Amino acid sequence: MSGPEIRVFPTLEELSREAAARFAERAREQRSGRAFFAAALSGGSTPHRLYEFLADPAWDIPWERVHLFQVDERCVPPDHPESNYRMIREALLDRAPIPLENFHRLPADLPDPEEAAACYAEELARVLQPKEGEFPRLDLLLLGMGADGHTASLFPSTPALEERRLWVRPNFVPRLGACRVTLTFPVLNSAREVILLVSGGEKADSLRRVLEGSRLVEHYPVQRVQPASGRVSWFLDAAAAQLLTTSLERE
Ligand code: 6PG
Questions:
Q1: Which of 64, 98, 111, 203 has the highest CB neighbour count under 10 A?
Q2: Which of 177, 169, 136, 135 is nearest to 153 (CA)?
Q3: Rounded to the nearest 5°, which phi and psi values hold at 57?
Q4: pLDDT by residue for the chain (251 residues), tens digit each?
Q5: What's the chain's Rg over C-alpha atoms?
Q6: How far apart are CA 55 and CA 66, in angstroms?
Q7: Helix (H, G, I), strand (E, B), or coil: what is residue 34?
């Protein structure tokens, strides 16, 4: 199997524009055989600019045929400053002609996070309709990476890392003293395509360990992102990529 695509951009601005171009191209071509394109969006700060770019009509994204899910959510109300939904709404949903029913919010604000996870799994099943016994297959997954090597809300040494059956589950993160609800690795690794967006010098050291060090998935959960029949691309800015030693396509 060939390794991941690794692209390095001078700044987050260029990285975001190229990631938007890739998203738009995939949404327009839609090769899955389904009537719509299904993507899942991460939270955090890195994809904010990308989502703003996506709202630009120049990309000609057929939004009526695009369904958007969330990769993960913090257990806070949807208008809370830490809500991933709020960030996505402000950057993208309020600015692009996305039909309301095409955005599938992760209801992590429900009083019981287990119930929130179960509801979201039902929503994935309703829209994506995987075959019996299979995991839902997203066409594109936009992920981030924390300086501690987490992706989605799959943090080092937390119980959700070992999930093999459930599609969505709560994950208590002791370091944050907070609960999050997240897609699980079986769903991440069923995607057709994954783009990992990493920006900033504070992630340079862990990125080097993740991409060039040994496999230590308990420490660096992002190393587990290996879709069985999907493509993985890393979109990095120069600051994040500064310690990588392998020869890279720099743009
Ligand atoms: C979240 C995420 C998370 C994020 C990384 C990177 O809710 O925070 O979805 O996995 O992608 O923590 O976050 P930054 O982009 O803020 O560095």
A1: 203
A2: 169
A3: -60, -20
A4: 468 999 999 999 999 999 999 999 999 997 778 899 999 999 999 999 999 999 999 999 999 999 999 999 999 999 999 999 999 999 999 999 999 999 999 999 999 999 999 999 999 999 999 999 999 999 999 999 999 999 999 999 999 999 999 999 999 999 999 999 999 999 999 999 999 999 999 999 999 999 999 999 999 999 999 999 999 999 999 999 999 987 676 77
A5: 17
A6: 13
A7: coil
At 233, list the tokens. Answer: 């691309």
Taking the CA of residue 251 as centre, how many other CA atoms within 13 Å lie in the half-sphere pointing to its CB? 15
Give the separation between CA 201 and CA 238, rounded to whole angstroms: 8
Work out whether strand 72-74 and strand 178-183 pair parallel, antiparallel, or are unpaired: antiparallel
Q: What single letter denotes the amino acid at residue 118? A: A
List residues bridging with 197 in a β-sheet: 144, 235
d(CA 168, CA 125): 11
Q: How far is the CA of 33 from the centre of ligand 1 (A)?
A: 31
- For residue 185, the SS3 value is helix
Q: Whose CA is nearest to atom 8 of ligand 1?
A: 44
Compute how many other C-beta atoms are within 10 angstroms of the C-beta atom of residue 35.
Answer: 7
